[in-house]
Design a protein that fits this description.
The protein has one domain: 2-Layer Sandwich (Alpha-Beta Plaits). The chain has 4 helices and 4 strands; from the N terminus they run ββαββααα. The longest helix has 12 residues. The protein starts with a strand and ends in an 11-residue tail after the last helix.
């Protein structure tokens, strides 16, 4: 079944240089979709750069067939790195990259080059 995303609210935040979106995902008889799938679909719908799109949270009510979440679309990588916490930036990457970043961070080695901004 295709991923059904509806944009509920779109707000421009000029102070932070980002667009803030509230969205709703319908997924009847399926689990919550992967964060990366949602990120790709929202970036495509908004005609934005996928690397500068961050899914900050997704909330599901028990037993319901829809989720509500927020996404931030940044204009540049510097603003994204400054305003988004490390764990949110890491959650928006593939699992292999995310585990590598956490390993490097734990060993106190450089890891910022793996974010690809």
């Amino acid at each position: 079944m295709p991923l059904n995303i509806e944009i509920l609210e779109e707000k421009k935040n000029p102070l932070i240089n980002r667009i803030e979106l509230r969205f709703k995902i319908d997924h009847f008889a399926e689990g919550t979709p992967n964060r990366l799938e949602i990120k790709k679909k929202i970036a495509k719908m908004s005609k934005a750069n996928e690397k500068l799109t961050i899914i900050s949270d997704i909330k599901t009510h028990f037993g319901s067939a829809h989720d509500v979440g927020t996404a931030h679309i940044y204009e540049n990588a510097n603003a994204l790195q400054y305003f988004e916490p490390f764990h949110i930036q890491a959650r928006n990457l593939e699992k292999e990259k995310r585990t590598e970043i956490y390993k490097l961070k734990k060993r106190k080695e450089p890891y910022k080059h793996l974010f690809d901004y």
